[in-house]
Amino acid sequence: MMKSCSISEGVWQLLTEIKAFGKGIIIFPQLDNEQWMVDLALMADITTHLSTLKRIIQGEDKLCPKLCSTVSGFITQLNLWTTQIRHGTFTHFPSLSEHRDIG
User: What is the pTM of this model?
Assistant: First the structure.
């Protein structure tokens, strides 16, 4: 059973089943496009990080300074992740890392 997730996460999690379903017929030509697959993997990972941020900031008893600190910390993480991706490190992006290992 799939946990609550975005469409991109769901597609990524069900990718093997989707490919098996469409085998022999061209239903989703994007699945053969390497750049599209990389983009999908990255989108699934980013969506997961954004969902985590949303869950944190929607918690109870959050004061404005704490919310600002949380968002500021997330922006710092985005800058770190951008640098890591540029250097080929995908530690915080499991879907992208998995795709890079497979593809």
Answer: 0.73
